[in-house]
Amino acid sequence: MSLDSLSRGEEVKDTMSGNSGSCKRISRDSKTYSFSPYHSPIARIDPGETLVIETHDARSGTVTKETDLLDKPHPDGLNPVSGPIYVNGAVAGDVLRVEIQSIQLEKRGFTAVKTGVGLLASRARAFATRRIRIDQNTVFFNQTISFPTRPMIGTIGVAPAAGEIPSLYPGPHGGNMDNNYVSGGSKVHLPVFVPGALLSLGDVHACMGDGEASMIGLDIAAEITLRIDLMKNEHASRPWIETADGDWVTTGDGVDIGVALRTACDEMVNLLMRRLQLSFEDAYMLASIRADLGICQACDPGNFPATVRMCYRRAS
User: Fold this and answer.
1) What 3-state DSSP class applies to 267?
2) Do 308 and 315 form a contact (C-beta atoms < 8 A)?
3) Which residue ranges in the chain fall short of pLDDT 70?
4) Other CB atoms within 10 Å distance of the CB of residue 75
5) Going by DSSP bridges, is the β-strand pair 34-35/22-26 parallel, antiparallel, or unpaired?
6) How many domains does the chain have?
7) How far is Cα 151 from Cα 238, in angstroms, rounded to an integer?
8) Residue 15: phi, psi to the nearest 5?
9) CATH code of residue 162
10) To which H or E segment does residue 131 belong?
11) Of 216, 243, 270, which closes a domain?
């Protein structure tokens, strides 16, 4: 059975985990280009269910050869996300906990240069596309350069309380965070703003350097296995992540990177206060000596929202 032959939300045997039960599979053809409470859900699930979600690459599978330059806007949009998925029982004020059990990559992805784009926009004077082979968890950049994959989900989020946010942008709802900690084994905690939460995700990268200097990672189609739980007694105003090692990661974003950094730090101090029952002063001191601030994406500072993170190392 091919991936694309599956109907939207159809239940199939869970061959990926070896279980004899079944889980819903969401086709990559069930996609949208924004987060909005007005999108109709393409599937409904109960908390605790496991899903297999297929995702397109950031150009919806239209880059198939190296002559496919990114010199024209995609006719439908950028960063397609699969969804939205309605979680039964979710209401505003709840938190979704999305456990990323696995990310299975397709055999080829692409990266590119666009003229006048990225940190070195002034030097990017020609369009270029490179199709890149993935084999045995290895990226073959060219005949002499290869390195391990580092799969991550670039865009994951829920519907905002009102309006429509293009999937290219980050925010308190999640969205295009380009955070390398959104990877296999991590649990992403997302605040719920509307009934059902309306979860969508996509924009998988086989590998992306922190900063995403050219504005394009190694974009690739993928299959993601998720378990989605509903947390009724947890507070979150923005996404935060618990890694496979148990570390805590908060997020921030903003056109002004200073705002983004302060947001991630503020969220971390608040998280430490809640989770460790600390005063503000103790949490602030602990963050200063134990938590690391880092850049996720800063490809066009001052013009496009930068995304940042702060990681509190809990493991020894």
Assistant:
1) helix
2) no
3) 1-22, 316
4) 7
5) unpaired
6) 2
7) 23
8) -75, -20
9) 2.60.120.580
10) strand 128-135
11) 243
Residue 156's Cβ-side half-sphere holds a number of Cα atoms within 13 Å equal to: 31
Written as six digits, the tokens of 90 are 């979710």
Strands 128-135 and 108-113: antiparallel
Q: Do 85 and 217 reside in the same domain of the chain?
A: yes
In angstroms, the first-to-last Cα distance of the chain is: 45
The strand pairing partners of 99, in sequence order, are: 187, 227
Q: List all residues 6 or more positions away from 42 whose beta carbon is below 8 Å from its beta carbon.
A: 8, 9, 26, 30, 83, 84, 85
Examine the domain organization and report whether 232 and 306 are in the same domain: no
Domain coverage including residue 60? 3-243
Alpha-carbon distance of 65 to 240, in angstroms, equals: 37
Over the stretch 137-159, which tens digit does the pLDDT of each residue have?
999 999 999 999 999 999 999 99
Give dist(CA 289, CA 271) in Å, integer: 16
pTM of structure = 0.92
DSSP secondary structure of 158-195? ---SSS-EETT-EETTEEE---TTSSTT-EEEEE--ST
The pLDDT, as a whole number, for residue 22 is 67
Backbone angles phi, psi at 267, to 5 degrees: -65, -40
> Quick count: other Cβ atoms within 10 Å of Cβ 254?
18
Q: Give the domain-ending residue among 194, 221, 243.
A: 243
Pairing of strands 34-35, 95-105: unpaired
Closest among 99, 79, 84 to 36, alpha carbons compared? 84
Same domain, 206 and 298: no
Strands (E) across 192-299 are located at 199-205, 222-231, 240-242, 248-254, 291-297
Which of the 8 DSSP states describes residue 21? S
Q: 31-48 burial string, b = 16+ CB within 10 Å, else e? A: bbbbbbbeeebbbebebe
